[in-house]
Amino acid sequence: MTAPKIRLGVNVDHVATVRNARGGRHPDPLRAAEIAVAAGADGITAHLREDRRHIRDDDMARLKAQLTVPLNMEMAATPEMVEIALRLKPHAACLVPERREERTTEGGLDAAGQLDDLAPRVRTLGAAGIRVSLFVAPDPLQLDAAVAAGAPVVELHTGTWCEAVAAGERLHAQAEFERIVRAAREAKARGLEVHAGHGLDPVTAEAISALPEVVELNIGHWLVAEAVFDGLGAAIRRMRAAMQRGREAASREAAGR
Predict the structure, then answer these.
(1) Which residues bind 3-amino-2-oxopropyl phosphate (predicted)?
(2) Counting C-beta atoms within 10 Å of the first and last residue's C-beta, which end of the chain has fewer, N or C?
(3) For the chain, what is the domain count?
């Protein structure tokens, strides 16, 4: 039996980071997105930050106009970003926490603590036909808040687990992975579609792809970093192969029960 495919969303933010380090137009995030699609990406993710440190408004407009796959706009849940999303009409919007001083998105959105502000913005985006996800920690409290806010999707933050794996902290990594496993099951039981992302490399992507509840991974930094050595297309094909191995392992396990 063929294992069901897990979707890969490729985040092109750090292609723009390299471009902005020097200025000018190269490397172009749109070209990176087109290479990613040709190599097997199912969608493209781009985070329009409030300070525009990497992706810019023009990048988003060009991605939306020219992509042949869904565009997922990562964004803070602010009035400015909601207005831009309503004008741009991406396929999806992933609401994430954002602090000016952070290097990248750190931790999940406190959906429970911000529910009163989040819920009307989720409704507004959803009414415009934009599929909303909340980027949250693998915590039942945050899953309940996602349901209460009316978001159809959660993206589970995998960064803490990935950092523990990279550091060789076996017990910590195991405990964090078990949190993700439980959260994925509980999210699906609540009627939420389950995505995952942050800090994933082929090893961790293979492991998390074995969770049948997870239908999409969003990965950026490892792919862009590896592209320096092997090219973006090769990095994406390597990642897709790892994800498929994880899916096939899960199918074999299920068939053996």
Answers:
(1) 11, 22, 199, 220-221
(2) C
(3) 1
